[in-house]
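Reply to dn_fold:

You asked what the input looked like. This is it:
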Amino acid sequence: MKNLGNIVKTLQNIMRKDPGVSGDAQRIEQLGWMIFLKILDDKDKELELINDDYVSPIPKELQWRNWAADNEGITGDKLQDFVESYLFPKLKNLNISTGNKRALIIREIFEGTNNYMKNGTIIRQVVNRLNEIDYSSSEDRHIFGDIYETILKDLQSAGNYGEFYTPRALTEFMTEMINPRLGEKVLDPACGTGGFLTSAIENIRKKDVKSVEDLKVLEQTIHGMELKPLPFMLCVTNLILHDMEVPNADYTDSLNREYTSIGQKDRVDVILANPPFGASVTDGVETNFPQNYRTTESADLFLVLMIRYLKVGGRAAIVLPDGSLTGDGVKQRIRQHFLESCNLHTIVRLPNSVFQPYASVATNLLFFEKGKQTKEIWYWEHKLPEGVKAYSKTKPIQKNEFETLKKWWKKRKENEQAWKVSIKNLEANGYNLDIKNPHTPEEEHIYSSGELLTLLHDSFKKSDELLEKLNKELSNG
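and this is what came back:
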């Protein structure tokens, strides 16, 4: 068994020697396009074996097998020049006139991707390391998947890129609760690196996929949209790793579409998503939305968009920050619209540190169905495991932490972690969904010596005032 950690470490150490690459984000992008081309070529070879008429959308001389696969192949300045002056320009301008979706995806990926490496000898060393992994062997394919997972986790600490990675424990738990089935259309309109899409694929494959035809149906019904080039590339690779021959992923800003143009044919059965929050939207995007719901807060617009995309009877599980659960004005109108058009049956309140180190925002998991009004909402407070003060990169949230919640899910009763709130109470409170656990006693405030002195001073002052008042009344009497 090859040592996964060593492969990733070795690749990163080799890249550190190149003067053109600085920082994790650039290393991930560099590794990303190389792994993408290697996997794509391995997949092309598979398809050529199965189908005599199959032709790769990548021109022969640009295929991995013809410039990278031979460990003794071109290197040094010649390789650097090939990548910089030939490979990238050609892939950025790939012919898409035939309407080949694969060609379009490759072109979109390379339009937004850079080659940072400046030393052809070091490029060759990285390429040779990647060649040690055979995508067509099932053990190696698994390793490739794991390497990929490691790269995605590294994203979390690479500057702002963490926003595209949702901890796997969350994506798997949310998917399990929503339970998408074969033939249902599944959408993630802010899919990042494809965590929810691949969770849905795994869930459906395990239960429903029995034939090549089933796999084709699955491929056509899993759909993601992503606006940023790096996560888009990583998402497409992730989908190919999960046997999606033509990944159904769009390189687009899903908010940049006229709200009213989303009609019946666009509607989906399932939405699984962690929309970006805390970010302002692209200038002018809010004008795509009805006047009543216009805001520049991305999470709120995504909520409106997702309600629109769901079919009546469709179900969703999404991540939302505390900021979207409260607030007046447009925020309140959006929440009212949400509760009137969907049954928001469950809110799971997460500890602040779930998305560390990218953000320490308090977040929630919302589970809802479209087509019925909300009558009551059940809340569940997810507590940190015994002895853990906060989640971190080395101690992330684990899937087994959801076992108690899963048992409670089907037979709901109030307990110290669970409580319910009626729609009447929510209406009276301006549809504020930020409801604290009533079973948790208010934490005792531990005062500093300075605060104690101030309290004591105030208390003496009050006593003096009362004494004076009493004296006056007695002397007047």
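The CA atoms of residues 138 and 144 lie 10 Å apart.
Hope that clears it up.
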